[in-house]
Amino acid sequence: MAESVKVVIVDDHDMVRMGLKTYLMLEPSFEVIGEAGNGKELLDWLDQRPQEEHPDLVLMDLMMPVMNGAETTRAVLARYPSIKIVILTSFLEDDLVVEAVEAGAVSYVLKTVSADELIYALQGANRGMPVMTGDVSQALTRGIRQRTVQGDSTGMTEREKEVLLLVAEGKSNKDIAEELHISIKTVKTHVSNLLMKCELEDRTQLAIYAHRKGWVQS
Fold first, then answer.
1. What does the alpha-carbon distance between residue 106 and residue 125 come to, in Å, rounded to a whole number?
2. How far, in Å, CA of 187 to CA of 202, rounded?
3. Out of 10-24, 58-72, 124-138, 141-155, least confident range
4. Which of 11-25, 63-77, 106-120, 141-155 has the lowest mean pLDDT?
5. What's the CA gap between 71 and 58, in Å, rounded?
6. Could you report how far apart the first and last alpha carbons of the chain are, in Å?
7. What is the Cα–Cα distance from 180 to 175, expressed in whole angstroms?
8. pLDDT at 12
9. CB-based contact 21:32 (threshold 8 Å)
10. Do residues 30 and 4 make contact, with C-beta atoms less than 8 angstroms apart?
11. Which tens digits make up the pLDDT trace of 4-39?
C-alpha cells in the first residue's frame, strides 16, 4: 500500500481548518499531520521538527495576519525547498495570483472548488504538477502580461502595451477586441498610436519590437 501524503493546513479561520482536516481525514491517500493559523506559526512548527517529520504538502490560505500566503511560501521554500505548497483562497485578483505563483506555490485553488477538484489539485501538486481552474489561469495570464508591460519609457499607455503584446502574439484585431473587451475600432486606434509612438510602419515591425524588448517569449 502506498504511503499517505502528509499535509499541513494553514488558515486563520478555525472552522475552515477543521472542515478541511475533517474532509482530508476521510481520504486514505492523505494524512493531516499539523495545522497553523498563519505563516509564522507554520514556520515555527516546521523549525521545531526534524525534516523527516515535515509535510509533503502545505495547503494554505492567502490572506492571513502576521504573514500572508505569498510571504510564507517564499520563506518556507527558502528553508525547505522539497515541500509543495497549494494556495487555497477566495481571492482571484490578478496580482495576487501572480505573486503566489512567483513565490513558488505549485497550485492556486479557489475555495469555491468542489471537494473532488481540491483532492485532484493536491494529488497533482504532490507530483509537482500545477493545477489551476480556467479562471485562475486567465488571472495569471493577465497579471503576468500587466507586469511585463510595466516600466517601459516609450510613452505608451498600459492599454496600448497590452495591445502590443497581443499583436506580437499574432492576434487579429478581432481577437484582441474580444480578449480585452473593447471594440475593433478602438483596437485599430491603439495600433495606429503604437505605430506612431514606436516610429514603425506595420504590425510585423511592432511584433519584432516587442520581441526585441523581451516582452514576448520566442
1. 6
2. 14
3. 141-155
4. 141-155
5. 14
6. 45
7. 9
8. 94
9. yes
10. yes
11. 999 999 999 999 999 999 999 889 999 999 999 999
* Higher-pLDDT residue of 129, 9: 9
The three cell numbers of residue 166 are: 497581443
More confident position, 147 or 189: 189
CA 169 to the chain's CA centroid: 21
Residue 57: CB atoms within 10 A of its CB come to: 23
CA angle 148, 150, 154 (to 5 degrees): 115
Tell me the pairing of strands 57-60 and 5-10.
Answer: parallel
Give per-residue pLDDT as tens, 140-178: 666 656 655 555 556 778 788 889 989 988 899 999 999
Task: Band the pLDDT of 3: cuts 50, 70, 90.
Answer: confident
| 108 backbone dihedrals φ, ψ, rounded to 5° | -130, 110
- 3-state SS assignment for residue 34: strand
Output the CA torsion sign for 154, 137, 129, 38: positive
Q: Largest Cα–Cα distance of the chain, in whole Å? A: 66
Contact call for residues 76 and 96 (beta carbons, < 8 A): no
For residues 108 and 100, is the Cβ–Cβ distance under 8 A? Answer: yes
State the Cα–Cα distance between residues 156 and 11, nearest whole angstrom.
41
Give backbone dihedrals phi and psi of 20, rounded to 5 degrees, phi first. -65, -40
